[in-house]
Each structure stands twice: as structure tokens, then as C-alpha cells.
Amino acid sequence: MAELTRRRFLADAASCAGHLSLAMAVLPRLGRAAWTRPRAGRVVAEEKFGRLEELAPGVWAMVSTPLTGDYTTLSNGAIIAGRSGVLVIEGFAQPAGAAWVAKQAKTLAGRWPTHALVTHYHSDHANGLAGYAGEDGTPSIRVTTRTAELVGERNRPADESRAKLLAGAVAIAPSAATTLDLGGRTVTIHPASGHTPSDVWVSLDEPAIVFGGDLLWNGMFPNYVDATPSVLSRAVRGLTGGPGTVYVPGHGPVAKQADFDRYVAMLDEIERAARDAHGRGKSAAEGAEGYRLPASLGEWTLFSERFIPAAFTAWYRELGQPG
Q1: What is the pLDDT of residues 276-306, one digit of tens each?
Q2: Beta bridge partners of 47
Q3: pLDDT score of 194 more than 70
Q4: Count of beta carbons in the 10 Å neighbourhood of residue 97
């Protein structure tokens, strides 16, 4: 695949990548360093583009660190290993990112991934899928039918290898949770929507870990470009595992319950502000002008002033134009 560039990301509306590339221009150096610093578990492998943190025996979170300027992975993901299978979550932005994660799975779990799951169609989660095809085999791809369709319709550049993998993928049930047995470890796959028309999140019961895809962000203001905000809000509330649960977001450091609760509070605040502006007869742009998140919600990385208006616009799509 051609080298990924900041200009290309800014032009890619069907991706969360525009947020991340813009951050390089607007975030102070110390702010970027702070974002990359938190660790939830022992770091077992690290590159400029991200690190693998061991959350439990056989479970590793892939935490991407694109604010360094390296866009090999861009999104977070995971490796989950059982006695008879290894699941990797996300296809990442480039084949090189997926290939690196697959090689780490072989090193850490003793085998190349047997399964790969994509949470939604955005290019930073799906465009690198071809990197999983290697000399050690190709994992069984898990994806919703709608997500596979959207990858083909919207993601650029087109890639024949990626398209072939998706054409042979095992479809995730669109309306009911399903399980995948990895041998002594079972993961539950939950279909949802809200961030895009078709999202998926994954959970483990023991230990209690939620892999939220881009339904969940930590410390980074979420991408509303495809969002249906009321549906997103309901879906996010369905992710909660209660005290002690560890959350792997689509972007940002691994989270705990307090981080999850803060994220829900932030979504609620955006809804309140958008509804208030709508009720006053303002346009989305007018409502968002000058708006800032309350200090009580803590710090949230805002990559561009246009992303608050994008959130208001998403709410106005649901509420209709004010009378």
C-alpha cells in the first residue's frame, strides 16, 4: 500500500484518521507525550506506532500511539488467545500494522491468528486486513455484512486482497450476541450501531474486559461523522461491565470504570448542549460556536474546532432543523 500521508487522512471522510493527523498540528508536544504515557498492563512489545499491554494471561491490548506521527496502526485493537485459537481485533490502517500484530501473536501465543474481527468499516480499523495473510496462513475474518459492504463502497484506496478476504468472511449476526470458543476462553461478540450503521464490540467474562471499538473513546473527543447520537448513547451504556472491568477503547489509553463513566457524562453533556441550542432555534453551527466542554469533565483532546460542530450537526440530523 502507498505510504499514508497527513493530506490523505484529512481528505478521508470515512475514517477516524483525520482526527489523529490533525492532532499532530494542534496538540502541544507535552500534551502528546502525556497521551502516550499511561499503561494499564505490562508492555510486552512497543514500536513508534503503538504498544502491546498484557491485561491478563493470554490477553493483550494493542494501544496505538499515532500522535507520534506514525500511522501504521492508528486504531487500538487486541490479541486474545485460548488453547486452540487466537483472535485479533481490528485490521488497522495499513497491512504492515496487521502483520506486526499477527507476528506478535505468534510470538506471545505460539501461533498465527486463527480469527480476525473488524469492529466497523472506518479505514483506520479495516484497511490493513491484508496484512494478516502470511506464510503461516490466513485467519478466519469476522465482520458484519453491512460493514463489509461499507468497506467496499467507501474505503480508499481499493485493495483487491482486502476485498477477497472480506468476500470470504464469516458474517457476524446483526441482531444477537454470539460466542467464539478459542479453547478454554470464550469471547462474546455484540452487534451494535451508533458510531456507524454497523458496529461490533467484544467482551470477556473472566477477566472482565470490554473491547469497545469506536463506540468507546478515552480522553479523545469521538468522531461523530457517521454517528446517530441517540443510538450511540444507548449502545455505549450497554458496554458497561461494572466496577473492576477494564475497557479497551477504539482510541486512547486503556480505561477503567471511572474513565467509562466520564465518557458517558461527556456524551450526555453534548446531547444537553445540542438540544438546548436546537430548542432556542439556533442552527447547529450557531449552537456549537464558542461551546466548550465543562471543566468538571476533565481534559479531552480536541483535534480541531470543527469536531464540536460535527457533534452538534449529528444531533441536528436527528432533531431536525429548528422551527
Answers
A1: 999 999 999 999 999 999 999 999 987 677 8
A2: 50
A3: yes
A4: 28
H or E stretch at 101: helix 95-109
Q: Which residues pair with 117 in a beta bridge?
A: 89, 142
**Cα distances (angstroms) measured from residue 240 to each of 7, 176, 261, 287, 318:** 36, 17, 9, 30, 25
Q: Which amino acid is at 258?
A: A
Give the model's pLDDT for residue 302: 78
Residues 259/300, Cβ–Cβ less than 8 Å: no
Reference 155, options 14, 41, 254; nearest CA is 14
Closest residue by Cα to residue 192 from 231, 162, 143: 231
**Position with higher pLDDT, 15 vs 155:** 155
Of 288, 177, 193, 200, whose CA–CA distance to 233 is shortest? Answer: 193
**251: phi then psi, degrees, rounded to nearest 5:** -145, 140
The residue assigned the cell 461527556 is: 266
> What SS3 string covers 4-25?
CCHHHHHHCCCCCHHHHHHHHH
Taking only the tens place, the pLDDT of each residue in 201-237 is 999 998 999 999 999 999 999 999 999 999 999 999 9
At residue 246, the 3 state secondary structure works out as strand
Given a cut of 50, whether residue 34 has pLDDT beyond it is no
Q: Which of 242, 156, 155 is nearest to 207 (CA)?
A: 242
d(CA 46, CA 163): 29
Q: Is the dihedral of CA 83, 84, 90, 91 positive or negative?
A: positive
pLDDT tens, position by position, 116-141: 999 999 999 999 999 999 888 999 99
Antiparallel, parallel or unpaired: β 246-251 and 209-217: parallel
What 3-state class would DSSP assign to 156? coil
Q: Do the Cβ atoms of 154 and 124 come closer than 8 Å? A: no
